[in-house]
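Ticket #4471: structure export looks truncated?
Reporter: QA, pipeline team
Priority: medium

Steps to reproduce: submit the single chain below to the structure queue and open the exported record.
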Amino acid sequence: MIKVFSTTPRIVMGPGAAKTIGEEVKSRGVRKALIVTDKGCIAAGLVSTIEQSLKASGIRYGIFDGVEPDPRYEIVADCVNMVRAEKARMLIGVGGGSPMDITKTAAVMAVNKPPVGQYFGINLIPKPGLPAILIPTTAGTGSEVTPIAILSDEGEKLKKGIVSPYLYPALGIVDPELTLGLPPHVTAATGMDALIHGIEAYTSINATGITDMFCERAIRLIYNNIRTAFAKGDDIQARTAMMEGALLAGIGFANAGVTAVHAFAYPIGAEFHIPHGVANTLMLPHVIRYNVLGNLDKFAKLAEPFGIPTGRLDQLQIVDRVIQAIDRLADDLRVPRHLKDFGVKDKDIDMLADGVMKVTRLLANNPRTLYLQDAKQIYRAAL
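Actual output as written to the record:
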């Protein structure tokens, strides 16, 4: 079977990397850019480093700070309007997954015909957009190295994906110093999201030797450093390892895809506004128990990057140890473990399961075929 591997063409990473943004923009001959972010990033002072570097390089810029958590796709049009009003020739996304996804989508929509809703799906964007630079402020989504943008459709109460090679940014700048002030609960949720990216891409039916290489290192880095980053947020070594892990997991799932964990997370995130990383963590052990028969060897191999001794255990027993390790990790990070904690009731299960079955883009990657009745049972197990 023919496989294609792709990623962001240039990545600058390491403590202080964000200070290079001005020279990176200048080297591309751009004189006016638009920073795309949210009010939280501005309040936290995360955008000031970017502004200072742009000013030092003589780059003029505007700021769009209208990004919201789990952004509605309508936000893209607001951002594109500002791109045109500012006459910007490049977009710079600063923040977590939401600002980066809005940045990527607005960059292509500045060139392609609206509405954005017609591009939900795979390879539907006709032509490339404006160049974009992405600067993550969490070790989570890996959006800086993926051709994917996730936007909320409030009408259908679903998160939907746009997948296109035109969504790859021109540059990703990965600076762990931007994550030093993250609160523990955000560190936990975003870090678990990145860990799950690695696990799902590793066990996807589209995994290859190349993606396995990225995912194995990502899983090891995140699993071995997330507790330290959570408990001691100013530990730059742990933060650096987390940023590298999130980046590598992003490269892995950009090519192999994520699977049913994310498919289950989307409906509960859209309907009950459960943070994405928390939603994934809630569903992870229950989906692994279902999926394990579809790729037993790979799920058992997770014991190695987790550092779990296996002795004379058989593969099913090893996977039980892996699930126990995931449960313990979630408890250590104080991530909620039950859907009922967010108001989900048994009466909601049918509606949520119907939503899962609509996420065909991700279920196509899943190591085990999922049926509606299975989806209902998995949600009930997570209650």
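Status: closed, not a bug. The export was complete when the record was re-opened. Leaving a note from the reviewer for reference: The two ends are 40 Å apart (CA to CA).
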